[in-house]
Amino acid sequence: MGVTMFKVESHTNGKVSSNTEALYRELMRLRGEVAHLHNKLPSSSRGSKIVRAAVVDAHAIILAAFSGQSTGVAAMYNTGMSKRRWAWAVAFLRYAGIVAMASRQWRNGLEFAVTDLDESIALLERSGAELMDSKDGYRRLSSLLKSS
What we know:
The protein is mostly helical. It has six helices and no strands. It has helices at residues 20-40, 49-66, 73-78, 83-96, 117-133, 137-142. The longest helix has 21 residues, at 20-40.
């Protein structure tokens, strides 16, 4: 199973090139591979499926944000992310400190506390590893879910 690498070009305005459709297709393919490998693990070492999905979906939201696209629930729903998955991903972004805890414009997009792509990815990776290694990752994320 080879991994296709994409070059994401940064431009002076902070946006990335328009190959996001190819990135989304690759993301979906990789999700399938992860699900297949996940099912081969013993259930005692799998961890929380919701936490893993939230980490992946948070990456998709970050990709949309730095591509100049809307990160609101409706916009992400149009890319195939359910409202429930969006809510968990936003909880993870809150946990990582990338998104403001209190967002009043969630239908239109998220209020980002971190606006640097490299810093956002670093926070995502560090927080993801922390939650995946933790036995209470699900509980930590669920405490950050907002019903609004």
